Amino acid sequence: PVQPGWQQQRQPQQPQKQLTKHEAPVGSDVATAGSKPEIRFHGYLEALRGALDREQMRKSRNYQGADTMRTRLRSLGVEIDDSTHTFSVGGLTGSYDLNLGISAQEVQFVALEREEARRSQDYTRSDALRQWLTQQGVTLDDRSHTLTTGDGFSGSYDLYKWEPITETVTETVTDVPPSFRGPGAVGDFDEPDEKRLRSE
Known about the structure:
Elements: E1 21-22, E2 31-32, H1 44-59, H2 63-75, E3 78-81, E4 86-89, E5 92-95, H3 104-119, H4 123-135, E6 139-141, E7 146-148, E8 154-156, H5 193-199
Antiparallel strand pairs: 1-2, 3-4, 4-5, 6-7, 7-8
Helix pairs in contact: 1-2, 3-4
């Protein structure tokens, strides 16, 4: 069940240092945002959902389930830090703080994961990722590769030109996954990515 705290808005916080350089996965060159798509976003949403689900288990005192989830996440290359409620996967970071919800940065990384799937012609996955983004109130413009959140944040998901979204105010979450699951089948929303990509 969705916890009430997920509908709360982010509290004002100190601006975080913006990183323009991210560490790529093992075996890849280090990539810089805005240069070329050497960063790999595949699996980011799965890591985010898993970290959130584990935190829900910890909150409900299901420590055995939380430990099992932690082991599963580590097998996927996901590291979690309970002191800061943050996770990292492939050099990318995110928060699983239940009081803060899903940030614009995390939404952007999922949008970039979707774009990566589209470019590799994995349309079933890209459609499922797009459905999740739509559930968060995110609008995508595939012609300009620009996303806009329900709170008015905007940013790029162009794999060659993206820069981290600067978030200084609040972000509201509209969907919280009740269980650890990756993107599923194509959802109920306009045209699938396979058709959309051909028209761009």
